[in-house]
Amino acid sequence: MSDVIQVSPDWLALRETEDARARSLDLARALPDILPAGPLTVHDLGSGTGSMMRWLAPLLPGPQTWVLHDWNAALTAQAFEGPRPRDLHGAPVAIRTRVDELDRLDAEALTGASLVTASALLDVLTADEAHAIVDACVAAGAPALLSLSVTGDVDLRPWDARDRRVAEAFNAHQRRSVQGRGLLGRYGAPIVNGLFRLAGWSVRTALTTWRLSDAEPQLLDEWFDGWLGAAEEQSPELAARIAGYRELRTSQARRGELSAVVYHRDVLAWPR
């Protein structure tokens, strides 16, 4: 994955506040009834700079140790910058990091895990990587909270008939094959949901949303540029079919008239 998925720390920082607002609090608040008593060890997959930890740690009791898994050591190093996250009772959490690839994840990597988490990850996995994560969680007996997987659905306001064409091309881009890796895209969350159910686990899901507007114009601009850019990369002929679309949407954004709702699916799974 390290050769395929490059994530900018600036993009992670820009989206962190909206990610925190969007994730399902209902699923997070169900965790204390599912997790074992005593100290918690949380393994966060594809952790980036640790935004999932900063959001979830204050909602869980302690003591807590977070193990941040990512294929980019430069991102996990940033988790140690700034104030240390604190648990529900105000105690600082301990942080460890691991540099590894998710296609090689196994139960041994999750030894001692009380909980496995991820955010904005399932849609960039392959089927083999999704199976590896579920198999490792099941073998370790560790519940999983997997947040913010795209569904492929987007609502822009004002409505434009060309939105649908862009969304279709973007969703195809999410399912592309990159260096032999066939990405799951919008099917990531449903596939993982099904795999946990096949393993006999209980599963809850929640529909979650990014709500982008002129309240955070830079995030709206960056998201729109990425969304449309991916669609045009997937279908180079698209630009001619939607002539003037980028210019229209950009001018609407500059006037504070553009907004977007981007839909995600959160998944909580635990052994019965």
Account of the protein in words:
The protein is an alpha/beta fold and 272 residues long. Helices cover 36% and strands 24% of the residues. It contains ten helices and nine strands. The strands form two sheets. A seven-stranded mixed beta sheet has the order 3-2-1-4-5-9-8. α4 (73-77) links the parallel β2 (64-70) and β3 (94-99). The protein is globular, with a radius of gyration of 19 Å. The two termini are 32 Å apart.
What are the main properties of this structure?
272 residues, alpha/beta, 7-stranded mixed sheet, two-stranded antiparallel sheet, 9 strands, globular
What's this, in brief?
With 272 residues, the chain is an alpha/beta fold. The strands form two sheets. The chain has a seven-stranded mixed beta sheet with strand order 3-2-1-4-5-9-8. Strands 6-7 form a two-stranded antiparallel ribbon. The mean pLDDT is 94.
Shape: globular
Note the run of SSEs as H and E.
HHEHEHEEHEHEEHEHHHE
Terminal CA distance? 32 Å
Class based on secondary structure composition and strand pairing: alpha/beta
Largest sheet: 7 strands, mixed
Spatial ordering of strands, largest sheet: 3-2-1-4-5-9-8
Chain-wise SSE layout:
Blueprint: H1 9-22, H2 25-29, E1 40-45, H3 51-56, E2 64-70, H4 73-77, E3 94-99, E4 115-119, H5 127-140, E5 144-157, H6 163-174, E6 177-178, E7 181-182, H7 188-198, E8 202-212, H8 217-234, H9 238-241, H10 245-254, E9 259-270
Parallel strand pairs: 1-2, 1-4, 2-3, 4-5
Antiparallel strand pairs: 5-9, 6-7, 8-9
Helix pairs in contact: 5-7, 6-8, 8-10
